[in-house]
Amino acid sequence: MTLSLPPFLACCVLITVGVTLLLERSLVRALAGVVVLSNGVNLLIVTASGAPGRPPFTGTAAPADPLPQAMVLTAIVITLGVTAFVLALVHRSWQLTGSDEVRDDTEDRRVRLRSRRGAD
To answer: Any idea which fold 5-119 has?
Structure first.
């Protein structure tokens, strides 16, 4: 199987940036992380499926499989729905608190304190 290196490296960069953005406390950055991560995974699926009109593995005579393209189209629709949902969450958070930062919950603080006491 031959794999084109530049699209594969672009997939790795997009997935890395997307995961990094998802780990941020800002909801807008998390939204950007979801979009970038989904684009990286979609590019990875298309890259791994092979050249258009050719089989993904060289040396076989079978026609190209349309499944990767169908999976990417489905992933695009799902990403659109998730993006709209997270965008609504960001907007509502901005309306209620005036910020898009995710704060710690009081119960999270209690659990953290209990775990620290148990570790000592």
So the answer is: Helix Hairpins (1.10.287)
> Which positions ≥6 away from 45 have C-beta within 8 Å?
68, 71, 72, 75
In sequence order, the 6+-apart residues with CB closer than 8 A to the CB of 41 are: 11, 15, 75
Other CB atoms within a 10 A radius of the CB of residue 39 amount to 19
Spatial contact of 64 and 55, defined as CB atoms under 8 Å apart? yes
pLDDT of residue 75: 94
**Each residue of 67-94: pLDDT tens digit?**
888 899 999 999 999 999 999 989 998 9
Asked whether residue 99 carries a pLDDT value surpassing 90, the answer given is: no
Where exactly are the structural domains of the chain?
Answer: 5-119
Amino acid symbol at 35: V
User: What residues contact 102, with CB distance under 8 A and at least 6 apart?
Assistant: 25, 26, 27
φ/ψ of residue 101, rounded to 5: -75, 140
